[in-house]
Each structure stands twice: as structure tokens, then as C-alpha cells.
Amino acid sequence: MMSATSSSAKTSNGGYSSGDYESQLTLEEEQKERDHFQKVIDAFRYYRIHSMKRIATAEKQFNEIPTRQQRLVPSFGDTSLRLQQAVEQNYAVVKKIIQSTDMLFENRSFPLDASTVNEVPDNKPKEFDMDKVRTTLKQLARDWSDAGAVERECCYAPVIRELLNIYPKECISPNIKVLVPGAGLGRLAYEIARLGFTCQGNEWSFYMLCAANFVINRCDMVNQYLLYPWVHQYNNNRTRESQLASCSFPDRNPSAVPPGSKFSMAAGDFLEVYTEPDTWNCVATVFFIDTAHNVIDYIETIYRILQPGGCWINLGPLLWHYSDQPDESSVELTYEEVRAVITSIGFEFLKESRSHPATYTQNPESMLKYQYDCVFFVVRKPS
Ligand SMILES: C[S@@+](CC[C@H](N)C(=O)[O-])C[C@H]1O[C@@H](n2cnc3c(N)ncnc32)[C@H](O)[C@@H]1O
User: Fold this and answer.
1) CA 272 to CA 203: how far, in whole Å?
2) What string of pLDDT tens digits covers the 383 residues of the chain?
3) Distance from the CA of 302 to the CA of which of 139, 231, 290, 346 falls in 20 to 30 A?
4) Whose CA is closest to atom 19 on ligand 1?
């Protein structure tokens, strides 16, 4: 799909010269990519209408029960209004995201004029795409709000601790290059760059890229925006307040990186973008390796692009993303099998924990909570 692109406004690094990948795309591929981008923007645009319809359905169903029963739940009265206000606020954020989609990267630009895109797109977005929009909002809470602090502590902090173990503070310099594939909204990559490493996050989804571009390149104040990440959760709410819980973001000013920090976001399929051997000192993956059709391709690529002596730090589960998806191939290995591949390819295990509890965009107040029992490991490509 897309290629290496760097959010150059606040980045340096890169390593991809302007137009490298763009020039490789055929006209047909370019058109396909534009159509896909348009589909993503359409889904963002449709967010308000779609969410309001869902609120209207809940209200209608409540209004259809006998009045006598309705009176038993007097607190339901202003629920619709409150949910609508929350959705309006989310849509204000969504509009900011799509207004900043004239993304200019180091080797690509996406000069889409989002103002010409209607709130009611010609083709109604699929539920799958609307779910991606809702997930993007929850990812904002995970990566860039106080509400995500606990989650980041269990997912990102162990990776950062390990990085500091490999490179003690006095050894850190921009000459040490760290890559974060599947970077989502870029918080882990940002934190690594803040320590003084050169760090590049790589992301493939346009939903994530648009939101990451907005936070990283357009937000310049702490707690600038308000968001209701759980407003679409109609089940397992202990109180209405938990559905209506808000958070502000960003909890840290993304533009306030220390002088000399080298932080970039690169767009595109990890397997297509990173082909240069012996380039990176460290690769850090969090909740990423199970996004592969074939994880062996990921492992081989990580091995190839690491410099001799370089390390791969990984934390995450094995929720194979393409499992049971029609017309998608999915190699569904166990951790034992993944581990055997890692060693067969040549990595040496330095550290391993097979039981590391972590959550992912989890509503802390929900009556249903998913907790992953992740693996966490550090492996090294021999010198
Ligand atoms: C489960 S999310 C994890 C995001 C982030 N690491 C975190 O912990 O919040 C996996 C991310 O990998 C991205 N992704 C999936 N396949 C990819 C690929 N081939 N290349 C780059 N990114 C990819 C997805 O778009 C998604 O944002």
C-alpha cells in the first residue's frame, strides 16, 4: 500500500529520499491507494451520522416499552442528549483529524481536500470501517491521554526499560536507531526519541496515520482536546457515567521533544518499506507481530534489517489478525512455534517472559474486561 513517509514537520531522520516510493507506483496502484484513502476519509466523515443513528435506536427502543416501565428508569431521560453531546465532541476531534489530512511526508504527500468530502458519502461506509473510526478514538485514549497511562505502563514501559538496559543513559545518542513497526499513534516511538535515540515509528493503516499526523504534527498544547472514548459502548456499563467518561489529550505536548531528538513516522507496509539490510540497532514491537499474514516474513525482515549485534524487543499476544478472514491467508503458529522460528533464523534469546498481563484499549470501568497474557522477549542478532 503506502510507503515510507515521515511526518517531517517535527522529524529529521528518514532515510527515504523524496519520491522514492511514489515513483515506483503504477497509475493503477496510485488510483487504488487514492480510493482507499477516500474510503477512510468517508468513514471519518460519516462518524457523526452513524453514531447519532445508534443513539436514536437506543432511544426508540426505550420509548417503545410501556410508559409505566419507562417511569421506573427516570434517569434514562436525558441519556440520549448526553450521548449526542459526547458524539458531537468526538466529531469535533474527527473533523480536526480529517482537516489535517493534507499530509506532507518526506517521500509522499496526500493533498486531499477533505472539505469536498460530504458527511453523507456516495457509498455508505461499511460497519467494518466505522469500527475502525471508533477504534482510532480509543487508540487516542491509549496513546495520548491520562486514561491510557496504566495501559502504557504495562505495554510500553517494559520495552523502554529493556532499551535502557541495553543502552544505559550515558550511551544513548541519535546514532542509535530504533524502529517501531506497527506504531499506531506513535506514543512508544515518541517516548523512545525523547530519551535521545533516533526513533522511527512505522504504520500502515490510514486511520492511524491520519490520527497520528494530527496529534504529532498539529497538537501543540497539553490537554488541548476532549474525547469520549467509551461513548459507543452500550453493554457492560456499571453506570451511565462510565459510558460518558471523557479524557483530554494529548497528555504531553508532542512538539516538546528535546532539542536534537530525531523522531519520525513512516507510512507503509513494514515488509515493503524496510528492505535495507543491517540498518537498525533495535526493533521494538508491541502488539504487532500477530498482524502478519505470515509471521515468518516479519521475523526474517527484522533479522535482515537489524545490524549485527542489534536487538529485537517484543511484547504482545498472538491474536492472528487474518485468522478466519475470508480470502485472507493466515499462518497461525503457537508461541512455541514462533520461538523455534526465531532461534532457527539465528536470533539468541537474552530475556523471555511467557506471562505478561496487558490490556489493549480497554475501558477501565467496563463490566467486561479483556486481558491478554502476553509474551515479552528480547533477542539479539549475533555480532
Ligand atoms: C494492534 S495495533 C498496535 C499498535 C501499537 N503498537 C500499540 O501497541 O498501541 C497493530 C498496528 O500495526 C499496524 N499494522 C498492521 N500491519 C502492518 C504492516 N504490515 N506494516 C505496518 N503496520 C502494520 C496496524 O495498522 C495497527 O496500528
Assistant:
1) 12
2) 333 334 333 332 332 223 355 556 788 888 888 888 889 999 999 999 999 999 999 999 999 999 999 999 999 989 999 999 999 999 999 999 998 877 755 446 665 656 555 667 777 899 999 999 999 999 999 999 999 999 999 999 999 999 999 999 999 999 999 999 999 999 999 999 999 999 999 999 999 999 999 999 999 999 999 999 999 999 999 999 999 999 999 999 998 887 888 999 999 999 999 999 999 999 999 999 999 999 999 999 999 999 999 999 999 999 999 999 999 999 999 999 999 999 999 999 999 999 999 999 999 999 999 999 999 999 999 99
3) 139
4) 269
Q: Atom 12 of ligand 1 has which residue's CA nearest to it? A: 182
Q: How far apart are CA 5 and CA 2, in angstroms?
A: 8
Closest ligand 1 atom, residue 142 Cα: 9
- Going by alpha carbons, the residue nearest to atom 24 of ligand 1 is 182
Sign of CA dihedral 381, 7, 3, 115: positive
Tell me the residue type at 136: T
HSE-CB for 49 with a 13 A CA cutoff: 12
Q: Is 288 in the pocket of ligand 1 (CB under 6 A)?
A: yes
Protein residue with least CA distance to atom 11, ligand 1: 182
CB 316 within 8 A of CB 286: yes
Please tell me whether residue 22 adopts helix, strand or coil conformation. Answer: helix
* Rounded-to-integer distance, Cα 109 and Cα 383, Å: 38
Distance from residue 234's CA to the centre of ligand 1 (Å): 26
CA dihedral 228, 230, 235, 239 (to 10 degrees): -60
For 8-380, the fitting CATH number among 1.10.220.30, 3.30.1440.10, 3.40.50.150, 3.90.780.10 is 3.40.50.150
* Cα radius of gyration rounded to whole Å, the chain: 22
Q: In Å, how far are 62, 73, 233, 321 from 69, measured between CA atoms?
A: 9, 7, 23, 43
Domain boundaries, the chain: 8-380
